[in-house]
Amino acid sequence: MIYTPEMLASMKKVEAAREANIALEPRRLTAEEKEALLKQYHPDYRDDGFTTIQVGPNKGEKAPLELNAMLEAHSRLTDAKVDLTKIDYDVDVLVIGGGGAGSSAAIEAHEAGANVMIVTKLRIGDANTMMAEGGIQAADKPGDSPAQHYLDVMGGGHYANRPELVRKLVMEGPGAIKWLNELGVEFDKAEDGTMITTHGGGTSRKRMHAAADYSGAEIMRTLRDEVLNRQIPVVDFTAAIELILDTDGKVAGAVLQNMETGELLVARAKTVVIATGGAGRMHYQGFPTSNHYGATADGLILGYRAGAKLLYQDTLQYHPTGVAFPQQIFGALVTEKVRSMGAKLINSEGEAYIHPLETRDVNAAGVIRECTTNGKGVDTGMGKAVWLDTPMIDRIHGKGTLEKRLPAMLRMYLKYGIDMREVPILIYPTLHYQNGGLEITEDGQTCVKNLYVAGEAVGGIHGRNRLMGNSLLDIIVFGRNAGQHAAASAKETQLKELTLSHVDKYEAELKAAGIDSDAVSPKLLPTYARGAKAF
Ligand code: MEZ
């Protein structure tokens, strides 16, 4: 038996209350109640998790301790000599990152006739895109509209979102779904061929398009095929460790490092797209993560040293339902789709204490409150947790529904002897998404000329909290956008002499601020990776 007696006793209460909890519609919190809950329990409000940035364009602003340590670290080139006249790769558009945003950017740049190359420190598809489960939002159904989607995105982001970016996201949403569908993504469809759509937290309409509970993997499979079919060069196991500028201050490529041999290489490029993804493997405030192995905020460091500004670097998303038990899959994602299909959040006493589709930040704070002040968490041996009452799904929609709509999740738990059709599962927030990132204009460009950013490395689209399914949408909309603009700019760009003087300038700034760090950045791999410090 894998459960402790305490777990079993609490599980009995959940089972006993199930029918009543299915019938119950927990009320939505008021704006004031949400704000109070966030301030008291959301990790973004914990002062001890943050510090003040001392160097660079965002000097004086707040950043998570772990990110700031990377901003204050030395360049990996500090003791290395790079000959910038020896060019290993010469391209129009260099895409750094092989996830959904990078692949979309490369496809569009290629479509526009640019000579484009992808460089990735792992392999194409080793990315958070691959890990996304529940779906992709777009307002393409009768009764919905981009305007309605816009209001949801802004509300979810606490109205801190950049309006022009949100406008682009929602207006181009239906086109993004059409593009993916035509490329070959196998979306869930009804018998008449229309797409099946569901709700997510904070959505006013059912606009979540999915491929079962492996939507991101299906999208990434399709994009990767397209990149390979177009024969776009992909240089894998090779990290970008510094951007190169030219003597006019435009971006002009990147210094690359082979992850196996450590060899340094020079990629000259007329334009660069940073698509390096998120930061879950920074484990902010000690949280586990749902992110892939390479999510270490590299693009933020590369862009920042070259002079690009960060926006909302102090806000992270903790997905309310990370696996809390069993230990082997601690922190893995339990898709929000589980809640959108009717499973409720239940505390140790069997109480459905909150609406399951409040926005993610609110639900994460709610779980933390139950497990701390309210004393209604279940001890897992690794901390406290609450229940997600998954048997409700088949009870509401009929036997077989969970297996059909959430097959990957079901399989993941069955491996550990847990049948989530029969028993509830234990969850706790897991570090899921970097709400902030590099600041861009509508064409995807930073304040460094010809330096573009797409995907999770961008800040501003989602304000201070992203809604489910808007990340898979943004990687497509802003990935394609960055690729198109980068290809167009490359046509008009003449590069001057290449330089790394910005790296020396940044080092001088660190010294002047009295910062003495023995760390190097970008991080590239999590601290617990073998040889992480070297590469
Ligand atoms: O957008 C996401 O983060 C997502 C779809 C996650 C999920 O819960 O499945």
List the helices and strands and how they pair.
Elements: H1 5-23, H2 31-41, E1 50-52, E2 62-64, H3 65-71, E3 74-75, E4 89-96, H4 100-111, E5 116-119, H5 128-131, E6 136-137, H6 146-156, H7 163-171, H8 173-183, E7 197-198, E8 208-209, H9 215-229, E9 234-235, E10 238-246, E11 251-258, E12 264-274, H10 298-305, E13 310-311, E14 316-323, H11 337-340, E15 345-346, H12 360-371, E16 378-379, E17 384-388, H13 391-397, H14 401-405, H15 407-414, E18 425-434, E19 437-439, E20 451-453, E21 458-459, H16 470-491, E22 498-499, H17 501-512, E23 520-521
Parallel strand pairs: 3-23, 4-5, 4-12, 5-9, 12-20, 19-21
Antiparallel strand pairs: 1-2, 6-8, 7-8, 10-11, 10-22, 11-12, 13-19, 14-18, 15-17, 16-17, 17-18
Bound molecules: (2E)-2-methylbut-2-enedioic acid (MEZ).
Brief descriptors of the model:
globular, binds (2E)-2-methylbut-2-enedioic acid, 17 helices, 535 residues, alpha/beta, 23 strands, 8-stranded mixed beta sheet
In short:
The protein is built from 17 helices and 23 strands. It has 535 residues and is of the alpha/beta class.
Report mean pLDDT, rounded to a whole number. Answer: 97
Anisotropy-based shape? globular
Indicate the radius of gyration in whole angstroms: 23 Å
Strand content: 15-25%
* pLDDT < 50 stretches: none
Q: Tell me which ligands are bound.
A: (2E)-2-methylbut-2-enedioic acid
Overall helicity: 25-40%
How many strands, which pairing sense, and closed or not: the largest β-sheet? 8 strands, mixed
Query: Structural class from helices and strands?
Result: alpha/beta
Number of helices: 17
- Head-to-tail CA distance between termini: 43 Å
Q: What is the number of beta strands?
A: 23
